[in-house]
Structure formats: structure tokens, C-alpha cells
Amino acid sequence: MMGAARVGKSSIISQFLYEKYLSRYKQTIEEMHRGEYELPDGSSLTLDILDTSGSYQFPAMRALSINTSGAFILVYAVDDEETWNEVERLREQIISVRGTRVPIVIVGNKADVAEEDRQIPFKVARSRALLEWGCGYAECSAKNNEGILTVFKQLLRQANIEYNLSPAVRRRRKSLPSYTGSPNPARANSAKYYLKRHSCSVQ
Fold first, then answer.
1. 3-state secondary structure string, 25-64?
2. Residue 177 falls inside a structural domain
3. How confident is the model at residue 160 (pLDDT cuts 50, 70, 90)?
4. Predicted structure pTM score
């Protein structure tokens, strides 16, 4: 999951996996989360979700993430135009490295803000994502826990993975160790960075 700082990336992940809202901002360096789903047909789905830094201080970590991830969620805040511009830059960087077939979902967070405080109209963002870029699109409010499930359903749809993420499906969630300091290229060889059958590594 990628995007500018303070757009709510960590809060989206926290609501999706742990049903908790992070009311206090804490800068993320890089943190891996895993959600394991038992599907009705008996198969399993594992989502490895990497929460990345919104800071420009870690270009090597960002480049490694782009090279190794199976799918991408690019988050902006609907009340901050500059965060939308950052999504445009990130998408261009991803496409230049991975091509146009990699699954990408554009997500507008903070959809609970008043309409007059919006800087990016819903119709403009959705049209750009769907029609011009061929990406998935969703809006959500991490604060109010609204639209969170839709974000990940859109991602799996983009990745052509059959899913059932309904609350009735048993989930096992955990946070994996954080990666801090200099990125270790050896981690790119870890199995969790590859898109496997019934498994998806998400940025």
C-alpha cells in the first residue's frame, strides 16, 4: 500500500485486519501484515500487505517494493490535491517498471469529509482511474470504517482472484516483523513477495 504521508494507509490496513482505527499518527517506515482467509470451497487465500512509508527519505525501499509486489493499492486523501498528484507519480513509476498489466487500485480515503472540503471530485477521480488508467477505484473512510472491504475486493478483482472476504469467513490476522533501517535486498527472495495461487502480495 503506497501513497503520501498522512493519507491513512496504516489506518485502512488496521481497520481491514484488526477493526481498529489509529487515531494518533505514527510515521511508518515499512511494516508487513498478513491476513489468511479460509474460503467456502476449502481453499485458502493469504494477503501479505506491506504498509510503506509516505516519505521521500527511502527511495531504495520504494524501488524494491515496486519490483517485488504482486499488486498495488495507491491511496490519496480526497481533501488534499497534492496527495492525488503523488498517486499519479507513483502509478507512473510502477508502470515504467512493471508495465500496464500489474493490478492497481486507486483509493480515495477520508470520504467522510464535507463535500465543500473535497479537492478531488469523486467523478473526476473515478473516471481517471477506471477509464484512462484501467485501474480499480474505491473510496473509503478509515475513520468511520466505511468502504474498507470494498478496497480489497477491488484489488482481488483486479488480480483476477476469486474471493470471499465476508465477515462470516474465518480470518487469522497477524503483524509480521517491521523492516527498519536500510532495506535488505535478500528479502525480495522471500516467498511472501511472490504472487502464488490463492496468495497475493499487496502494496
1. CCCCCEEEEEEEEECCCCCEEEEEEEEECCCCCCHHHHHH
2. no
3. confident
4. 0.79
